[in-house]
């Protein structure tokens, strides 16, 4: 009986002690709620301790650099001296001495000025073992001669396959085989803070490697539009990094730590012209689409929605109030809709605010470019937009836009140097081909067009971005153009837009060699 009393007392004492400890612990937790305990991380940091995703060792760039540098090349370009005429008022003595005589020049009148030749350099990335190379359009634009030097010091003559000023990309080709090349990565998978490596030939130095992190994605810096007079077709969706990029790096590679190509270095943000903290690269997912189209067609097959828009993130509060969108902080304000565009057919109107495409948020123009960068004519899009406070969705099919052109009268002209007759399309032909006009190449013979591999029946719609209204306009533009120019157009039996690079000397002659 005595032992039972003892056990009972022990039990009561233990229970009381345990209860006291539990109660105090609970009290303490209540008192410390809302504060952080040193050394403890919340659940959203669990990935840091996931051994399957943790790196096996410290970040090391040597393997990626070793695999990528042989596929990055040094591109050197040369332009010839050119003569241009300054259209000053005619000299009163022009008829007596001739406007181009020393006396005519002394008294005024048209003066012939010589622009000296130039040499420049940049970088490029080999993308196939048979010598296709991607670089920036601004590296090779107007070049009369292009040479490529590989990492093993071999030098090749290069020719331009095609250019795309809208994305600032170009493809050149060297005649070689079994070359090292870079494998495409996926720029959509990039994450902020991810390590990246820039490779190129800055300041004409030998191949140079720098490293940094991804600072931003889908960055719109307005650079392309400033160079293309505000063209709505300009692609602005850069990867922003803090990897050091300097003059000469243009066209070089931006790779990830797996050695995959994720971008083409294109620009820097600098008041001095040299690196001061940020650089910008064209995402490889845009590069792939542009390169494939240039190699196949000579021009990019770009799908157009048929709208003009304003990035709401760039508007002031007053501007948003005037447009009656002051309750929006992001999105794209539709400022206009083309009558024959895909957006018009789908029901979009001026004043709508686009917020998503194919379920992917479009908060700014950079994201719009990223979404549209790999789209082609015939692709279908689901567009989410706001109108009068309500959300709508529209399904549209992208069209193959090649610009707006006036109707042309039938007029024929021929050029010995160009080696073809140029004929303006009749309204009936334009309607049949689904365009608003163009100049057709006929009677092809030996000459510049044939050297450029243009075929009979090709319909020119633009030359160097200039609308061709009639045959004499086409001949005038060709005569006044020098260096590398771009013809764009279609063939009667297809919907694809084709591009052909022509090399023109001052007298309108063609030199297909680079």
TrEMBL record:
Superkingdom to which the source organism belongs: Bacteria
Phylogenetic placement of the source organism: Bacteria, Pseudomonadati, Bacteroidota, Chitinophagia, Chitinophagales
Keyword terms: Hydrolase, Protease
Hydrolase is among the record's keywords: yes
Protein name in UniProt: PDZ domain-containing protein
Recorded family membership: Belongs to the peptidase S1C family.
GO molecular function: serine-type endopeptidase activity
InterPro entries: PDZ, PDZ_sf, Peptidase_S1_PA, Peptidase_S1C
Ranges where the PDZ domain occurs: 294-389
Single GO biological process annotation from the record: proteolysis
SUPFAM superfamilies reported for this sequence: PDZ domain-like (SSF50156), Trypsin-like serine proteases (SSF50494)
